[in-house]
């Protein structure tokens, strides 16, 4: 696949509008392609759960689908009390398998199908999309790992900034000395926010690498170099196009799960602070609600992956068009 019909990067709104038109045109196909890794992961999780748990609650599926860094934080209490060490290994490794292997393969298949739809008006079939993605599996996985590491760093930095905000509020409420307030504000909020900005800048430079691997049939190092070249002086536009999708998905599904599972379990005990009781999950009263949250979380992941692939592809095309225009102007 080669870049085709470059689009001008007129504005983030225009780009998102073009991506959404393409997304709506073949919505069911994108979901079907993105659903395969989610179904594979669910099957692997349940199989492993049967080997470890006599009766795995269905609600745990939603929790174990979370990012490995968050999953590790959720198990702080179990690790501290040595209550479930035999059960700690398989969910995290399955989560890494999903994030580092299954999802990159699905993203590659989506990009192949999206490219075909943009060129011919018809996306590839599910089988053809994955046949295009599998030969690039090693490159896609290698390109995904640094991006996953960056996302993990961002999660940690946002968490540190949140703790810093709580400490600052506590210091102000207690009437602490001004130098203590300033120190907490600088180290607890200012420094993490600054590091978040630098990390997002790096993420914007590298985020197009998986798309480039599929579109230009190149290796990860060349894809990263190409991504840096395309996003030079366009990083804010890249972040404005990519970041809101992930944040919206987190807000839609993570907040209900947190309120329904984590908070009730934390309120029922005083042995640990609520923020260290994330592994003591409450079970909602209705099994239908439990199953509904699982399905909603999985569907959100599928929709987010497919939508991000559409936006990433259109952004790649737009940046290719901008680079071509710049080259013509310089001649």
Largest sheet: none
Instruction: Report low-confidence residues grouped into runs of 5 or more.
Output: 1-9, 54-59, 61-91, 264-285
Radius of gyration: 22 Å
SSE order in H/E notation? Answer: HHHHHHHHHHHHH
State the shape: globular
Number of helical segments with 4 or more residues:
13
Name the helicity range.
over 70%
How many domains, as an integer? 1
- Estimated share of beta-strand residues: under 5%
Distance between the termini: 27 Å
Structural class: mainly alpha
Number of strands: 0
Rounded mean pLDDT is: 73
Task: Characterise the protein shown here.
- This protein has 331 residues and is mostly helical.
- It has one domain.
- It is 79% helix and 0% strand.
- The protein contains 13 helices and no strands.
- Helix 1 packs across helix 12 and helix 6 crosses helix 13.
- The two termini are 27 Å apart.
- The relative contact order is 0.15.
- Mean pLDDT is 73; it is low at 1-9, 54-59, 61-91 and 264-285.
In short:
With 331 residues, the chain is mainly α. 79% of the residues lie in helices and 0% in strands. The two termini are 27 Å apart.
């Amino acid at each position: 696949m080669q870049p085709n019909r470059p689009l001008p990067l007129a504005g983030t709104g225009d780009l998102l509008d073009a991506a959404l038109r393409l997304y709506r045109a073949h919505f069911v196909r994108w979901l079907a392609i993105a659903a395969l890794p989610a179904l594979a992961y669910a099957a692997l999780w349940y199989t492993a759960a049967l080997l470890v748990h006599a009766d795995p609650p269905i609600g745990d599926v939603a929790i174990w689908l979370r990012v490995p860094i968050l999953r590790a934080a959720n198990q702080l209490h179990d690790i501290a009390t040595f209550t479930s060490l035999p059960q700690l290994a398989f969910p995290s490794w399955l989560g890494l398998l999903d994030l580092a292997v299954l999802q990159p393969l699905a993203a590659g298949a989506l990009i192949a199908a999206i490219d075909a739809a943009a060129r011919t008006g018809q996306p590839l079939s599910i089988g053809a999309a994955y046949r295009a993605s599998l030969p690039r599996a090693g490159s896609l996985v290698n390109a995904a790992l640094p991006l996953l590491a960056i996302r993990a760093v961002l999660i940690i930095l946002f968490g540190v900034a949140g703790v810093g905000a709580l400490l600052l509020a506590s210091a102000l409420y207690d009437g602490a000395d001004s130098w203590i307030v300033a120190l907490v504000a600088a180290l607890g909020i200012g420094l993490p926010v600054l590091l978040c900005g630098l990390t997002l800048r790096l993420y914007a430079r590298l985020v197009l690498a998986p798309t480039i691997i599929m579109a230009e049939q190149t290796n990860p190092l060349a894809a990263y170099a190409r991504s840096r070249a395309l996003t030079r002086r366009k990083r804010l536009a890249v972040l404005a196009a990519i970041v809101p999708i992930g944040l919206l998905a987190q807000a839609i599904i993570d907040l209900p799960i947190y309120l329904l599972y984590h908070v009730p379990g934390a309120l029922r005990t005083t042995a640990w602070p609520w923020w260290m009781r994330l592994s003591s999950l409450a079970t909602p009263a209705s099994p239908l609600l439990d199953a509904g949250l699982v399905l909603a979380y999985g569907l959100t992941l599928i929709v987010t992956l497919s939508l991000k692939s559409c936006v990433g592809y259109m952004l790649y095309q737009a940046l290719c068009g901008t680079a071509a225009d710049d080259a013509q102007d310089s001649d």
